[in-house]
C-alpha cells in the first residue's frame, strides 16, 4: 500500500506513462518517464516497474554503450516490455506487442540515456557534450541520487547496475562512484548490491588480443593466416603497428568482409537499392537469411554502433588500440544497420509526448547512436575497478554472447581469469528450457563469467528466453 501510494504521488508529478502509440492493450505494470537535471544537463529516463513484486524486486539501471548509444536500444530491441513490429504500410507507426521475456518480469528497470547528448538527454550548453568516462560516472551518480529522491519508495530495494558493450566502461566506473558515495555518506543511501556487464569493453590488451584468436577458433580465417599474423605481430598484437603486422592483419579483415561483426551467424541488413546492379541480386539467399534465427517472436534487426565505436576518440592519456580499427574496416565493408523501427517510433510527436520527452526543437531528433558528443576514454583499464568492487563484496556477473566478433568472449574469459581469484565453480554448462544454453566459471568473491551459446553482442536480442532465465536466477541468488 505504501509503494502504491508513493507511485501515485510520482504520477501526480507528471511522470506516469498512461498510454503508448502503437499499443492497444493494458500495461502489465506501471511505467514512468521524464528528466532529471544534473546541473545544466537534462538526463532522460524510462522506468518500467516490476510485474512481480515492485516493492521487493531489485531496481536495475540499464545502460547501452557506444559511447553515444541510447538505452532505448535495450528498451526497443532487447529486454523492454514490448516487441516492436514494423508498421504496415511502410513508414507508418510500429505496432507494439507484450514481450514475454521482458526483464521487467522480475525487476524494476530504469533505461537511462547517458551521457548528456545521447538519445533524449540534452543540454542547452552544448559544451557539456564533450565528456569522458570519469565525468559520465559522476553525472550518472548524481542522477541516481536525485532519482531516488523522486522515487523514495525504491530506496530500500536492492540496486544493481547493468549494461553492455561500452557500458563495460560505464558500469564499473559508475559502480565505483556509487560505492564512494555510500562511504562518504551521500543521501539517500543507495542499497547497491552488484552489477552485470554483457560483452563489455574492458581492457585494451585483453580485448585487443582476443580478436584474431576468436576468428581463428570460429573457422573464419585459416591456420596459415593465423600463423602469419602471430609471426608478424607477436602474441601480443593488440597495439602492434609495424608494417609487416598491418599487412598480415589486412588478410584477416579481407577474409571477414561481409560478416555481421555483432553476430557472425546473423546476416547483414542491406538496403535493396545498394544491391541493385550487383549481378541483379536484390535479396540475400534464403539459406543465408535463416542463419542465426532466434526465438524472438518478431523480426530481429542488426545495428551498427557506427561512429560510436569503442575508443573512437583518442584518449588524452591512453592508447587507441589496433583492434577497433581492424574491426571498423570489416564493418565498413558491409554495413549492418536497420534501425528504422526505433527511429520511426521515437521520433513520432505523439510518442514523445506520451513518454514526456522534449520535442525535436529542444532535444533534437532521436538517433540510436549520436555523433553530437565528443567522448574521451579517460578511465584506463577496468580490471582494477572489477577487482576493487568484488573484493569489497559486490556481486558481479560478466556475460558474453559467444558469437560476438565486436567484443569476443575470448578476451572476457581471459581477463576474468587474470584477476587471480580462486575458482569455486569449474567450467561447466548451464541449461535453460532443458537445453545447454552456454557455459560458466565461478570465482571467489562472487565473480561469475558466463557465456550464452549462439548469442551475439546484444545477448537479450538474440536469446531472449535464455537471457531472462540467467538474469532472474542471478538477481534471485539462485544457481545458474
From TrEMBL:
It holds the Pfam family Peptidase_S10. It is found in: Secreted. GO terms for cellular component: extracellular region. Gene3D superfamilies: 3.40.50.11320, 6.10.250.940, alpha/beta hydrolase. Belongs to the peptidase S10 family. Probable carboxypeptidase. This is Carboxypeptidase. The lineage of its organism: Eukaryota, Viridiplantae, Streptophyta, Embryophyta, Tracheophyta.
Amino acid at each position: 500500500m505504501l509503494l502504491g501510494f508513493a507511485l501515485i504521488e510520482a504520477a501526480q508529478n507528471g511522470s506516469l506513462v498512461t498510454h503508448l502509440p502503437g499499443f492497444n492493450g493494458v500495461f502489465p505494470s506501471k511505467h514512468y518517464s521524464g528528466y532529471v537535471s544534473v546541473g545544466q544537463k537534462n538526463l532522460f529516463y524510462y522506468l518500467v516497474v516490476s510485474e512481480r513484486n515492485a516493492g521487493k524486486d531489485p531496481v536495475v539501471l540499464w545502460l547501452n554503450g557506444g559511447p553515444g548509444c541510447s538505452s532505448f536500444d535495450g528498451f526497443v530491441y532487447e529486454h523492454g516490455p514490448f516487441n516492436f513490429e514494423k508498421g504496415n504500410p511502410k513508414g507508418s507507426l510500429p505496432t507494439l506487442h507484450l514481450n514475454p521475456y521482458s526483464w521487467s518480469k522480475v525487476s524494476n528497470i530504469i533505461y537511462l540515456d547517458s551521457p548528456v547528448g545521447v538519445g533524449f538527454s540534452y543540454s542547452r550548453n552544448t559544451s557539456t557534450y564533450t565528456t569522458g568516462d570519469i565525468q559520465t560516472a559522476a553525472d550518472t551518480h548524481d542522477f541516481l541520487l536525485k532519482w531516488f529522491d523522486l522515487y523514495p519508495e525504491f530506496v530500500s530495494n536492492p540496486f544493481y547496475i547493468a549494461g553492455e558493450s561500452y557500458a563495460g566502461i560505464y558500469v564499473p566506473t559508475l559502480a565505483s562512484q556509487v560505492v564512494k558515495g555510500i562511504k562518504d555518506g551521500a543521501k539517500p543511501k543507495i542499497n547497491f548490491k552488484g552489477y552485470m556487464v554483457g560483452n563489455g569493453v574492458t581492457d585494451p590488451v585483453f580485448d585487443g588480443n582476443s580478436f584474431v584468436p576468436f576468428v581463428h577458433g570460429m573457422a573464419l580465417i585459416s591456420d596459415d593466416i593465423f600463423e602469419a599474423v602471430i609471426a608478424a605481430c607477436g602474441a601480443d598484437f593488440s597495439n602492434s603497428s609495424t608494417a609487416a603486422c598491418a599487412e598480415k592483419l589486412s588478410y584477416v579483415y579481407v577474409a571477414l568482409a561481409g560478416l555481421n561483426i555483432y553476430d557472425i551467424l546473423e546476416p547483414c541488413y542491406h538496403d535493396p537499392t545498394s544491391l541493385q546492379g550487383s549481378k541483379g541480386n536484390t535479396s540475400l539467399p534464403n539459406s543465408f537469411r535463416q542463419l542465426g534465427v532466434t526465438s524472438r517472436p518478431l523480426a530481429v534487426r542488426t545495428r551498427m554502433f557506427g561512429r560510436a565505436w569503442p575508443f573512437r576518440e583518442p584518449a588524452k592519456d591512453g592508447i587507441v588500440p589496433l583492434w577497433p580499427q581492424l574491426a571498423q574496416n570489416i564493418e565498413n565493408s558491409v554495413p549492418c544497420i536497420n534501425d528504422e523501427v526505433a527511429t520511426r517510433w521515437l521520433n513520432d510527436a505523439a510518442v514523445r509526448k506520451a513518454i514526456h520527452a522534449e520535442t525535436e526543437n529542444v532535444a533534437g531528433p532521436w538517433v540510436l547512436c549520436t555523433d553530437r558528443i565528443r567522448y574521451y576514454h579517460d578511465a584506463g583499464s577496468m580490471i582494477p575497478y572489477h577487482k576493487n568492487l568484488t573484493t569489497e563484496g559486490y556481486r558481479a556477473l560478466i556475460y558474453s554472447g559467444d558469437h560476438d566478433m565486436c567484443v569476443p568472449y575470448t578476451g572476457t574469459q581471459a581477463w576474468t581469469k587474470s584477476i587471480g581469484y580462486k575458482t569455486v565453480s569449474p567450467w561447466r554448462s548451464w541449461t535453460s528450457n532443458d537445453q545447454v544454453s552456454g557455459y560458466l566459471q565461478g570465482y571467489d568473491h562472487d565473480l561469475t563469467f558466463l557465456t550464452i551459446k549462439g548469442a551475439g553482442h546484444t545477448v537479450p536480442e538474440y536469446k531472449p528466453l535464455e537471457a531472462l532465465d540467467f538474469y532472474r536466477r542471478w538477481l534471485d541468488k539462485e544457481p545458474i
